[in-house]
Amino acid sequence: MPEDSEAPPEKGTRKPRADSLRNRDLLLGAAKAAFAETGAEAPLEDIARRAGVGIGTLYRHFPTREALVAAVYAREIEQLAASADALLARGPAGQALGDWLNVLIDYMATKRVIAPALRADPGEGSKLYASSGSTILATLQRLTDAAHAAGDIRPDIGFEDILRMMSGLSQGYEQPGWDAGARRLLSVMMAGLRA
């Protein structure tokens, strides 16, 4: 058998149906919105209703609240990392860096709401929370390197400097309304970084 051919699926496994994938995506979007409004303890019935599915569908995808919270967080991390590629493809690397840091602020606003539930989960949630930093740092490093290579940011400012600036920006992220101030400071930071 050639190396590049796909192995047949294992007996008893099959690809999820399109409607199942759609329902899962709807549930994750509805959960993110509900968590942002009322916290990680948002009623699961409300989340199912927002998604336009029954509570049984929610439980088939996410048997526990902890599983739902962890899935919302995992999707946020995946989208955050994937957005870097889209931003780099769309425009200059320096602009991509600034745009991604704005997306990072959105992520932090979501994280603020669900982080306590993730840390309290002795299973998947706490492991996911602990491992997410490496994905974020690797993405920030890649964008910083691209902006340097393009000559879009000052050559004397390194990844560690940007990381320190973002650490300062993140102070108080657990407070409601933090993101508006963080965006103002980010625009000042990006203006100072330009080559």
From TrEMBL:
Key words, A-Z: DNA-binding, Transcription, Transcription regulation
Record keyword DNA-binding present: yes
DNA-binding region: 43-62
Database matches in InterPro entries: Homeodomain-like_sf (IPR009057), HTH-type_TetR-like_transc_reg (IPR050109), HTH_TetR (IPR001647), Tet_transcr_reg_TetR-rel_C_sf (IPR036271), TetR_SbtR-like_C (IPR049445)
Limits of the HTH tetR-type domain: 21-80
Stated name of the protein: TetR/AcrR family transcriptional regulator
Provenance organism: Caulobacter segnis
